[in-house]
Design a protein that fits this description.
Layout (H helix, E strand, L loop, with lengths): L21 E6 L5 H10 L3 E6 L2 E6 L1 H10 L5 E10 L3 H10 L2 H4 L5 E9 L6 H20 L4 E2 L6 E8 L2 E7 L21 H10 L7 E4 L6 H10 L21 H12 L9 E5 L2 H14 L5 E5 L12 E5 L9 H18 L3 E7 L2 H4 L8 E7 L2 E9 L12 H4 L1
Parallel strand pairs: 5-6, 5-7, 9-10, 9-12, 10-11, 12-13
Antiparallel strand pairs: 1-3, 1-4, 2-3, 4-8, 7-8, 13-15, 14-15
Helix pairs in contact: 2-8, 3-5, 6-7
The structure holds S-adenosylmethionine.
Length: 407
């Protein structure tokens, strides 16, 4: 555990020797904490503790590289490096100003601070970030007569400022851009699902890549690509080139290369079918572009059709889908769409399991099948349910339309 408590002697987080163990925080989405904890466990992380929308753990720089490269459900891997109390703005400024920022970043670099505050003292997290920025640049100005600049996109260094009451924590963002930016998106539809959420749904469903996979409303193909990457053991960030830690002073390219090569050696073939269907030809063209970029287009087939006309692959199959939620569609149409989803699921029969994520609590009742599991998740700001339907010959429809069945 290396959260430094001292006001004056906060050692540089970017100088930690690669063999030394330190605390990290993996940020994720609500409901995916246990999945991320399991992913970290499989990578050999220690002291794993799921917390709200995050997982705390310890490990070395090698663990940090692995977590960034392999965790499908992490949004960012953060490294706490300063913790202190501040009872007013001046104390925040003074404590931040005393940190040896010149050991962390060069004067000519760019940086950005993301902030979150749950505090009666610091009611405006944006303002707290501004004070923190002032304290950093004033220190540089005093020492060098120049200062690093703020950059909102593509900053060299990203810091997170967390304030709970009077307890302030500063963290380095080792990922840089959010890890949902996998690097494979060449085109999107109107409402693409977040890649981290898609990967989370696949793991929450319990699919072990031991059967076929089908998304009947696949849009630009996010669930299909995440399923294919998972099934082939392709690391989550295989297509991404840039990470925040690459600017750190203790970044060791050879160690990073070895982490990557080791993970890439586990890529394997997948023997089942992965298929998607969508009614919109334009969005399928985006899916095709994304699949070609990943070179997974030979492994995934796309059907341009209405899902009502399309059957799932034969035999055992995991079906996961993200239908429209009703932002651009009338309620009547939406009710009948969800009703026909229920009809279609019912027609699949034995050997298939279907999961559906939606934020439309009214429309989902029209599915008319009783879900065997309901998981609360968020798609951005939208509260959703991820519903499981065990399908069997003669699944009963039109019986389960109570709110309680779906909530
Ligand atoms: C929320 S989007 C799916 C987004 C997708 N998960 C992605 O990441 O791009 C819903 C999709 O359902 C498709 N859709 C709507 N009605 C359909 C139908 N009857 N048959 C097949 N697809 C349909 C839409 O064209 C749209 O692409």
């Amino acid at each position: 555990m290396i959260i430094e408590k001292s006001k004056n002697e906060v050692s540089s987080p970017t100088l930690t020797p690669s063999t030394k163990s330190f605390k990290m925080i993996g940020k994720t989405m609500f409901g995916l904490e246990e999945i991320l904890a399991e992913e970290l466990r499989n990578l050999g992380a220690q002291d794993i503790e799921p917390i709200n929308r995050a997982v705390a753990f310890t490990g070395t720089m090698e663990t940090l590289y692995k977590a960034n490269y392999c965790c499908r459900t992490a949004l960012a891997i953060l490294k706490p490096f300063a913790e202190f109390e501040a009872n007013n703005e001046q104390e925040l400024y003074d404590n931040v100003n005393q940190i040896k920022w010149e050991q962390i970043m060069d004067v000519d670099c760019t940086f950005f601070i993301e902030s979150a505050a749950n505090s009666k003292i610091f009611t405006n997290s944006y303002y707290a970030a501004l004070k923190t920025k002032d304290a950093i640049v004033d220190r540089f100005r005093r020492m060098f007569g120049r200062r690093p600049t703020i950059e909102t996109e593509n900053a060299d260094y990203k810091f997170n400022l967390h304030i709970t009451n009077n307890k302030v924590t500063l963290l380095m963002n080792s990922s840089g851009d959010s890890l949902h930016k996998r690097g494979y998106r060449q085109g999107v539809g109107i409402a693409p699902i977040n890649e981290v959420l898609a990967a989370g749904l696949i793991q929450l469903s319990g699919w072990k890549a031991d059967s076929n996979f089908y998304d009947p409303m696949c849009g630009s193909g996010t669930l299909l690509i995440e399923a294919a990457m998972y099934a082939n053991n392709i690391p989550a960030q295989y297509y991404r080139k840039k990470f925040g830690f690459m600017k750190w002073k203790n970044y060791t390219p050879s160690e990073w290369k070895s982490v990557k090569e080791k993970a890439d050696r586990n890529i394997k073939d997948f023997d089942y079918e992965i298929c998607g269907c969508d009614i919109d030809r334009n969005v399928l063209e985006q899916a095709e572009k994304n699949l070609r970029f990943t070179k997974l287009h030979h492994d995934v087939c796309l059907y341009h059709d209405s899902f009502q006309n399309q059957d799932a692959p034969e035999g055992e199959c995991m079906i996961i889908t993200n239908p429209p939620y009703g932002e651009r569609i009338t309620i009547d149409d939406l009710n009948s769409l969800y009703s026909s989803i229920g009809d279609k699921f019912k027609s699949f029969g034995n050997g298939k399991t279907a999961w559906l994520i939606t934020s439309d609590f009214r429309a989902m009742k029209n599915i008319g099948l009783k879900p065997s599991r309901k998981i609360q998740l968020y798609n951005g700001a939208l509260e959703c349910r991820f519903l499981k339907f065990d399908l069997y010959d003669g699944s009963k429809k039109a019986k389960y339309q109570n709110d309680e069945d779906y909530k």
